[in-house]
Amino acid sequence: MSVDLAPLVPYFSDLRGGRPLAALTGAGVSAESGLPTFRGAGGLWEGRRAEDLATAEAFANDPVKVWRFYEWRREKVRAARPNEAHLAFARLEGVLPRMTLITQNVDGLHQAAGSRRPIELHGNIMRDRCRGCGTVTAAAPAPFATLPPRCPLCSELLRPDVVWFGEVLPAGSWHEAETAAEGSAVFLVVGTSSVVAPASSLGLLAARAGAHLFEINPEATPIAPLAEGVFRTSASEVMSAIANALGAR
Ligand code: APR
């Protein structure tokens, strides 16, 4: 089924000419790579309490339980490959002079697809961070032999380098994302339920600053009323169509 890009077409020449495109992606973009989303049927939070698995308190109470959950997710990420949506974003970087990719995803699939420097608002699950000295290292290619893992430098507990509920986003990343949203001519919100703050406010910031806002998601989300256009189909279909239409190879 071909995607009708008519709502976006009027902005293509601006984008090719250097007007900035910015995009926010969520778990829906990685769904087609076999990674579960968070909410909705089969989501990670279906039958699991985020408070027990994705907060600093949960980690303090039971680091082994939290690590078992993240090791299980890491195995899925290790087995996952970028899909057409990830590849389309990387292709677009090759033809658009100014493009900013902002992601809530911690799976690193945008980088694996070739995206140069996605802004990782929620960190990356394939990195370890020491709770004591703050050292960040790439995760080993295989699960830890013993849990919970400890920092080789200071022996404090290692945690996944992700942002948990109740924690603030990395200041630099958030500032960059805000600036990109407010400076964008076109802002795409792709594969996110738009319910987790502050990332969920980026579309609003962009629209308020005058950007043409579009939602790409099979389902409507709270951002939809602000959008100039919506594409109610998969990220891979729409993003590939956009990349093709803009001559990205
Ligand atoms: N293409 C586009 N969108 C899709 C697809 C697809 N193939 N499949 C599902 N979606 C949409 C769903 O309709 C849903 O709106 O992706 C969205 C996924 O929403 P969530 O599961 O809530 O994921 P996300 O919005 O990324 O979550 C935000 O919440 O749990 C925290 O830190 C975690 O980064 C995460 C944040």
Can you tell me about this structure?
- The chain is an alpha/beta fold and 249 residues long.
- The chain is 33% helix and 16% strand.
- The chain has a six-stranded parallel β-sheet, sandwiched between helices. Strands 5-4-6 form a three-stranded antiparallel β-sheet, covered by helices on one side.
- Helix 6 (84-95) runs parallel beside helix 10 (235-245) and helix 8 packs parallel to helix 9 (202-208).
- The structure holds adenosine-5-diphosphoribose.
Number of helices: 10
**What proportion strand?**
15-25%
| Class of secondary structure makeup | alpha/beta
Largest sheet: 6 strands, parallel
Strand order of the largest sheet: 3-2-1-7-8-9
The poorly predicted ranges are none
Question: Which properties best describe this structure?
Answer:
249 residues; 9 strands; single chain; 16% strand; alpha/beta
Topology (elements, then pairings):
Layout: H1 12-16, E1 21-25, H2 27-31, H3 50-53, H4 56-61, H5 63-79, H6 84-95, E2 99-103, H7 109-112, E3 119-120, E4 123-130, E5 136-138, E6 158-162, H8 171-182, E7 186-190, H9 202-208, E8 212-216, E9 229-231, H10 235-245
Parallel strand pairs: 1-2, 1-7, 2-3, 7-8, 8-9
Antiparallel strand pairs: 4-5, 4-6
Helix pairs in contact: 6-10, 8-9
Bound molecules: adenosine-5-diphosphoribose.
Outline:
This protein has 249 residues and is of the alpha/beta class. It has ten helices and nine strands.
